[in-house]
Each structure stands twice: as structure tokens, then as C-alpha cells.
Fold each of these.
Amino acid sequence: MIKDSHIVLGITGSIAAYKGADLASKLTQGGAIVDVVMTKAACELIRPMTFKALTNRPIHTDMWDVAHEGISHIELAKAADAVLIAPASADFIAKLAYGLADDILSATVLATRSPIVIAPAMNVNMYENSITQENIQKLKDRGFIFIEPAEGHLACGDVGRGKLADVEDIIGEMHKIIGRSGPMAGKKVVVTAGGTREPIDSVRFISNLSSGKMGYAIAEAARDQGANVVLVTSSQIKCPAGIEPVHVQTALEMRDAVHKACKDADAIIMAAAVADYHLETPFKNKIKKKSATLDLNLVRTPDIIAEVKGDLVKIGFAAESEDINKNAKAKLKKKGLDLIVANDVTQDAWGFGSEYNKVTLIDPEGNVNEYPVMTKRKVADLILDWLTSSPKWVK
Ligand code: C5P
């Protein structure tokens, strides 16, 4: 987990250096100890004081600082759980490719045994130049992890690939890298999210109020604990970094994607609000409002999680508006689940669309654990705590 992890954040002389401040701030807010190391060129673009204020740590800019008692680059290299260089300039990437160590940041990179993550940011021509590409490939071959720059308007006025990747994506990638040795390392978890959309005609559909936030929180929490996560989603929310998305719309598409992903999975967590009914054959064209009423013949969708077979742990949700525990227990049994997460969807303060949820975890042994309202991320952590200590998972 990123909390209490030690991250060396390298800032180099790319105009995107100011985005490094956002990264330093967000990583620190996430609980990481962030040691910022800046090249000379980076100090021309943004002042070390900014990083000092954001991280509340000393900033390293000089290998020849006589005031420092130890050997800074070796201390930093040894303490790091990961080194992140964001933004990484073309010049700095070239230095790394040739193993130069003539400043405090390149010396730290050369001296560390921790994972090294590079997020390049530069002019499109510099990025696409075969020299830069060759240097990147060289570093990739040596196990450096690259976070691709994005396409867009660059500071120089050019349009193309070279923009620093989204700060949120870089942070997501760091969560995944730090989590690689976590309790879910080497396991595959399939998570579903969102309300499915069942077409009526070419422009209309039936859906529900599910935002997908609960499923996304579970996917992120599992990623942070080192799992390989496949997120089968019908939600419009962007898939977080370090998670494999499978985008679907309908219950039938979700069923196919889930069954495919579950073949070699260790757990399935179905947080999606799957439509119970759909039109078997939606109208090909937009329905005209010719008559006063319109009858739609809806048929049941397959129960996706009930159909999942195999030795994996099966966790379902029960969104209920009455007799919550009684209904949830019945579903647990009927669907052959190892755990059901019951939640009350009658309150606006939590549940659909909210950042919060109020859940009760019920297992087949009759254990019923009711929790107070908490963030969806906390609920996700609770579910994963249950999962990673369940006998089926541990075996
Ligand atoms: O809709 P219901 O209350 O039965 O959903 C309970 C659980 O079953 C949820 O985890 C949901 O994702 C899953 N489900 C499913 N296939 C359906 C309907 C629901 O897997 N067709």
C-alpha cells in the first residue's frame, strides 16, 4: 500500500515540471513519504521551496552539498520503495540509458534496486526521435517501467504525443507498483461495476441508478494490494490505471466478459447492478409515438454470478429496499455465493451515486456483520479483508 511507502520523486527539466508539484502533493496526501530530487534544469523551472512545502521534507538538488552528513544519493536509493521520474526529459532519459551518474538524481537511479518508473514529457519531435525511442527501449529492456505520454497541445505549440500522462494515472500506476508485494499479489480478481444498459430501440435503453463507484473502489483496492484486476464495467467512469478494463453495455455482454475473465480467476466480486429484464430483440429503428400506450415484452436476463462455476471465491451484492438481511440471505443461498454484501438503497446519503455506502456482510455460516456508513473505499477494504482471510482464498 502506498501509505507509509517511501517514494523518490525525480523532477527534470521539462516544462511539465510544475505538474510534479501536483504529484508530490497527492502522493504525500496518500500517506507516502516523498523525497523530491531535482536536476539543475528542473530548479530553473520550479523552485525547490514549492516541493519542500508540499512534502514537508528536505529537497535534494546537489550531490556536492557539504552540509549533508551522509551520502545522499545512496541513502535515497536504499530507502526508496520506488523511484518515480515525472516529468522525465529526453536528456535525462538519454543519461539513464547510458548509465551516467553525474548529478544526484541520475546517481540515485543507478544506485537503487527499487522499481524505477519513468513518465516522459517533451516536444513531440524529441519524443518520436529515433534516438529517444532507442533510449526508451533500452531502458524498458532493463526493466524500467514507462508511463506513456499523452497526445495533445504541447507547451511549444505543437500537437502530438509528449504531454505528461495524467497525474491520476501516474498515481494509479504507483499504487500498483508499490502494491506488487501486497497480500493479493499473484491473484486474479474479476470485478464488475455499473448498471447495465438494455436497449429498447436504436436510441433508447433501460438502465438503473448505479454509478459504478462501488465496483471501481473495489477494483482500486484490489490493485493496491497487488492483485491483477479485470474490471468488467458498464459505467462511464474512466478505468483507473493499472487495471484491465473490459467495457460492456448489456447484461448479455457482461455475462460473456465475466465468464471469459473468470476462467483463471481467484475471485469474482459482482458489484454491478445487472438489469433483471431486457428486450430479447430490441427495435431496430427509433420507435414512433403513434399510439397512446406502448407495451414492451421484457424477458429475464441470465443470473451471471449464479452461472459462474469453479473453485473461485464468489462475492455478490444485494441492493435492497426492504427486509434487507432476509432477502440478502436468500440470494446468498440461491446464487451459491461465499459472501453477500447487503446494502440499503432507500437513503440518498449513501448507496447509488454517493461516495458512501452502508453495508452488512453475510456469509453462508450465518455470520452477519453490520457496519456504519463509510466511504466506498473503506467498504472495499472491508470486503477484501474478508476475502483474503477466507479459507477458500488462503488454501
Ligand atoms: O439483482 P440481484 O439482487 O439478484 O443481484 C444480486 C447479485 O447478483 C449482485 O451481485 C448482482 O451483480 C448479481 N446479478 C447477476 N446477474 C443478474 C442479476 C444480478 O450476476 N442477472
Amino acid sequence: MAKYVFGIDLGTTYSCISYVDETGRATVVNNAEGTNTTPSVVNFASPNQVVVGQVAKENAVIDPNNTISLVKTLMGKSDFAINYNGEDKSPEEVSAYILRKVAEDAGKQLDTEVKDVVITCPAYFGTAERTATKNAGIIAGLNVLEIISEPTAAALYYGCAKEQAEKTILVFDLGGGTFDVTIMSISSEKIEVVCSDGNHELGGKDWDEAVMRYLAEEFISETGFDGEFDEYAQQDMRLKAEKAKQQLSSREEVPVMLDAAGLRARISLSREKFDEITSTLLGEAIDKTDAAIAIAKEKGYNIDEILLVGGSTRMPQVTKALVDKYGMEPKILEPDEAVAKGASIHAVNVYVNNQKSLEPGDSGETTVTVGGTTKEINADDYKEELAVQPEMMSIGGKTQKVVVATTKSFAIEVLANNQPKCCNIIIKNQAMPDGSITVSKTFGTNEANQDNCELVVYESDFMEDYFDIDEDFVLGTATLELPGNLPAGAPIEITFTLNTEGILEVSGVDKTTNREVHATMQSKGIMAEEKVDELKEKSKRMVVM
Ligand code: AMP
């Protein structure tokens, strides 16, 4: 049986899975319902059965309390997504069911096991969100080769899709629940992220809500209804609002039939009205785009091309705004599929690179160094040869190297002029040529004879050297043990290493005795390994439909 590896776009509203076939072509695999994307909606149907996808989305109308959508917005931020049958479910567990649905459906279609995957996440996802995404994959029983940013995946697909000279592209990615703008320099050899920004609360769902508000007002004025819309009416309106929005991408006007509390109305919505009621939302995306372009300019990059990804870029208002503002006609790149396809191309590269890094005879847990990053892999996962080799899917036989940039700043709490401040060590948008970045800074101990020092690590979007302390940005804490006899101001070197997956490792050296002090990050948003294993076992007992 041919061995394939997969790319999964775990989207806020829709998910999609792709693989690279024997001819080197990235191909999306349809789900059991025959569609190329699967709604990221999970309905807990019974204690041992979960329904995922279109059926769950429809079930949301009749069973709203046991149905959850937009779970991606909770990843790494909360340990609670929904309570079912008296049990709290985490966002990782819920996302694992979405991953299982797309993976198991694809496995059936291709008559193979879907095991090795690259999963995508928005570029601005920080350590906790990326780790949560990876843990969702582990809970789903997958071997997560890597987590990569959605725009990087889209650019990888775009890069493989055609031959080209070096250019700077802006990826405008407006999905169902998130907005990402990423600027990258792209050539046949290399894809390098220049900078990225985004708003994880802005997406197609907000356009749906604007339509819902409009429909509700029109319904009230037409029928005289003066009650509250119950949950059923709201879910119904949500489905109809999204449908109307999508139809308005190809039509000038659409009718919407609404029923609530025994009343009925036919509401007409024009594209002009739709554009008017959603103009502030689009404005927010354009403002972020402006800010990213300004950062790229400072670094010496001018935009040659704008690339649209994400289902919501189908709205004509997006192209219109970009043309009006930047005088450039953006290119639409298979908005629903580009990210998953790029992820599958990356999966082939990662699998083959991991394979090459193994020593003959390696088996079980092994440490390998790939592109300057050391990682733990299970050698047994890489025994099989792939059905495709990277050279078959690249331009002129060359494989494109992906150079990512930091998507967050990482700081440590210090005393600056006797004031507690955060001092940035790694700054957002720094290039990571080897896939990772290591930065060290030396600080002095505050007092004489300290037994230890507490490192409080912050993750934020601030790009200044120092910024004010804000508890909201605490990533975690770590304790450095000290000999206990050091004078005040004794030098301590702090080293932050950010790996390819955006996960931070912290270490320190007491420079007086040269003793290495190891610090383990205890991030508040990150699930403990034992819990991940426990959920993985539990997930196996659940049937996903
Ligand atoms: P994604 O997360 O990239 O799959 O994007 C999903 C979002 O794209 C959802 O909010 C969809 O309603 C929206 N979408 C899909 N097709 C269209 C369309 N034809 N016009 C407008 N929005 C669309």
C-alpha cells in the first residue's frame, strides 16, 4: 500500500485535508458527505458517539446545548469548551474529534491509514495555542509532524503551483473566524516570512452576525414582533444569514424567509446593503493590512502581489477594497483548499527530512537535528517510503526552504531603574533562518544571597525593548535555582529558544559559578502530558460520525 502523509487545515468554521499524490500533485480528499471541506462543528450525540461536520451544524438548531462551533477561538486560552453529560470537555478534545472526522473519512476514501500530518494554525497563534493544536492532534491518535502557519502553507502551495522570479507577496487570509495578514518574500528556492499580523476575533462569522442583526431588525419592523428570538430562531437565522452572505458573492440581491414565534417575513438583502452593514469589519482588516505593509516597507520590501485565501475573500467587497486602496488586482488562490494543500506539501518535506536525519538502525524515541533544530521523534514512524518524493512536487526539481519569522515577542520581567518592567528578549517578526531562534541576555540578581530567582515570561505583540507589566500576557513562570551566596547584581544569562512550532524553551546560566540552571516553563494554558495521554485513550472509545 502506498504511504501518504497529510496536511490538515483545522479551520475555525471549516476544516480540510489534503495529500500529495504519486504524480506530485496536492489533492484534497472529500469527506464521507462528498464535500471538500467539513464544518468544524461537533455535536455530542450520546456518551460514546460524536457527530462532526454538516450534520452537527444542522443539529445545532435542534440540540444547541450539546453542539459546539468555533472551538478554535478557545484553543490555548481556556480548558473548557462545552459540558456534556456532566463532563467538561476541553477545546483540545473537541478539536481532536474534528481531526478524527477528516482523517478517518480521508482514510476510507483512499483506503489507507491517515497517521502522519501537518496541522495548520493562524500565523499569530502563540505558544499555548500552537501546543493546544498539537495536543489535539495527539489526542486524535495522529503523529503530528509539525504545526505550521496557514499563510505559510498557502504560500508553499502557491510557490509550487507556478514557476516564478523572486517577489514579495501579501497573503490576505480572511477565514470563518480569523483574519491573518502575512507578507513574505518568495522565490523558487525559498519562502521567507517578512512579517505577520492578524485579528483572531475577526472572520466570516462577524459578517454573518451583522446580517443576523439586520434580519432581526427587518423582521421586527415587518411583523411587529416584540419578543426575544429563542435559541432555535437564532440558530435558524444564523444558518440563513451565512447562506445569504454566500449567495451575495455571486448575486446582487437575495430573499431570506424567516419564521419566528408563528410569524413569517420575506426580507430582501442587497449586496449594497450588505457591504454597508459590514463596512467597519472590512475596515478593520484593511487597517491591519496597512500596518503590516508599513513594517515590510521599513525592512525594504515592497508588495508585488496580493494573494487571497480563506473562504471569506470570496466576498466581492474584499477585492474591491484592496484594488481601491493598493491599486492592485489580488489573486484568488483556491480559497478553501490552498492551506490544506500547502500543509500536505510541507508534510512530505518534513517526513523526508526526518527520515534523512535518522541513523541506520535507529528505532523508538530518537533525537534528530533537522535544519538546526533538535527534536524528539519516534524512528519507527519513519520506516516506510513515501509514494511521492519532494523533488516531484517542486519547481525545477528544487525544494523550497521555508524561513519563518517569530509571530510573538517574548519577554522577561526585570527591574529597570527600580521599576518592574518587561524586557523583550525575542521580538516579533524576527527571521528564523534555521527554523528556530535563540537569543541570550544577561541580567543581574536583585539582591545578595538569593536562593533562586523567579523568571516570569511574557508573550505579547509589543515590539519595544521594554514595556509595562500586564498579567494578561504572562506565558508562564520558571524557577532558577542559585547557589545562595551570590552578591547582588551577579550575572545570570537567560536564553530563550523558540522552535519551528512557536514553542518556547527557557534556560539560564549563573555566570559566577558557570553552573547551568535549567528552567521548565509552566505555561498556564498548556495541557499536562498525562492529561493528553488520558484523553487520547478516551477518544479511542468514542465513535466519530
Ligand atoms: P474558511 O475558514 O477559510 O473555510 O472560511 C470559511 C468562511 O468563508 C465562512 O465564514 C463562510 O461563510 C465563508 N464563505 C465561504 N464561501 C463563501 C462565499 N461564496 N461568499 C462569502 N463567504 C463565503
